[in-house]
Amino acid sequence: MKSGICYLVGAGPGDIGLVTLKAKACLEMADVLVYDALANPELLSWVPDHCQKINAGKRAEKHILKQEETNDLIVRLAKEGKTVVRLKGGDPMIFGRGGEEAAELAEAGVTYEIVPGISSAIAGPAYAGIPVTHRDHCSMLTLFTGHEDPTKGETSLDYAQLAKTPGTKVFLMGVKRMTEISTTLIKEGADPETPIALTRWATTGRQRTITGTLANIGQKVIDTGFKSPAVAVVGDVVKEREKINWFEESRPLLGKRIVTTRTRQQAGQMSKKLGALGADVIEIPTIKITEPDDMDQFREFVADVHKYDWLIFTSPNGVHRFFKEFFSKYTDARSIGGVKIAAIGPGTRDAISEYHLGTDLLPKKYVAEGLVDEFSNHQIENQTILWVKAKESREVVSEGLMKQGAIVDICVAYQSIAETEDPTGNFARFQKEGADMISFTSASTAENFFAMNPTIPDECQIASIGPITSEALEKLGHKPHLETTESTIPAFVEAIEKAFQK
């Protein structure tokens, strides 16, 4: 039996950009992923297709697996010779019980590694504009858990000592007991006017911060309906938020919940752009890319590409599928020959450029009809054209170019099928919490999304990337509130931002 290994990996506080490179590398080679209730479900898309995903839960009192069951599980899986990634929010060794899991692995003789992550205890205050240490205020930081009830005699925390300890105090998991914690600290000698800030869903588009004092924060939590998960910062450093509240004040889409429906592989680009504007992005992939029905024919077309006058790509997926096969046959890019290359739009052109190849034709309108019109400016009669496409694509390109006298071969590089899984729980979250907008980037994303029979809130807007997608939406009985004039992701994101500004 080969030896397995378990990586205890910190998932960071929520912002996908705060995940370490080593954490990403571990996820990309995982055979099994055992994960907690994560702030960023996008991490689940980083594992290989063969990876088994196991949700251990772990949020407040809602645990799918007990800690002992999780310990036994990761030991058993690693002993089976698998690469196990135990993914834990924030840092696994800061109130994450990572030390207990490491001890179990060590006792069982299992090889393991600890991959630290950025804790919300540090990241949360930073994103709220609060430095946990500051020369003008303090040079000492104390971390403690708010999970224990301070009114119980058996609490392991010395609140009398905490109240006297100088510097900044940060505690996690204490929203539900905020009144008891603040009252106990005051009772033990803390100044009632000590500033305190609570930041919920820190570093994400759902971030929200409230401030007060030890004397009134408990009532503010009740009055505002403030809920966990949140990090609390106590001390004079909270005053710095007035000057450096950089995240919550500068994001035009902060607090707006937007659904994206692209494939798991493609959702990231749009999510990052919307997230950078502050949006709370819910990724609900509705399609996934699979191999074409006839792989042998696809391979033959790729092998013979040098025989054609033109090579047309109408999607980034087609580009990547084509060149993956091309470079499995050829080691020299020059083997593509003298074929000219056409792309339907900037996104597809950029995908081509990743292979250090230029684009000879790009239409003014980034749709199939625009591509056909652009070819009318070229003499293509009797020229051979290889069109790399998805199985479901409309035949506009082939029919239009054949009318111009071209000889067109259709190379089906992939097919799009409905995504039926919801491993991140994002569809369930959408049904529970709703959204301000749902964005659609193709007719198939629209068709597959509404095939799931979702409940759409009355105030939720529908956004379409272009006329073809809008036509599909209208056939489904959902006329879009927004349609871009340019069918690109940057233009789509810009239009969404402007729609909310209005």
- How many structurally independent domains? 4
Strand content: 15-25%
CATH class of the largest domain: Alpha Beta
Q: What class would the helix/strand composition place it in?
A: alpha/beta
Q: Give the CATH topology of the largest domain.
A: Methyltransferase, Cobalt-precorrin-4 Transmethylase, Domain 2
So, CATH architecture of the largest domain? 2-Layer Sandwich
CATH fourth-tier homologous superfamily of the largest domain: Tetrapyrrole methylase, C-terminal domain
**Annotation field: number of helices:** 19
Q: Can you list the strand order of the major beta sheet? A: 3-2-4-1-5
* Helix content, binned percent: 25-40%
Which runs of at least 5 residues are low in confidence (pLDDT < 50)? none
Q: How far apart lie the N and C ends? A: 63 Å
Number of strands: 20
What global shape is seen?
elongated
Provide structural commentary:
With 502 residues, the chain is α/β, with parallel strands linked by helices. It is 33% helix and 21% strand. It has four domains: 5-118, 3-Layer(aba) Sandwich (Cobalt-precorrin-4 Transmethylase, domain 1), CATH 3.40.1010.10; 122-248, Methyltransferase, Cobalt-precorrin-4 Transmethylase, Domain 2; 257-286 and 419-501, Rossmann fold; 298-413, Rossmann fold. The strands form four sheets. Strands 3-2-4-1-5 form a five-stranded parallel sheet, sandwiched between helices. A five-stranded mixed sheet has the order 6-7-10-8-9, with helices on both faces. It starts with a strand and ends with a helix.
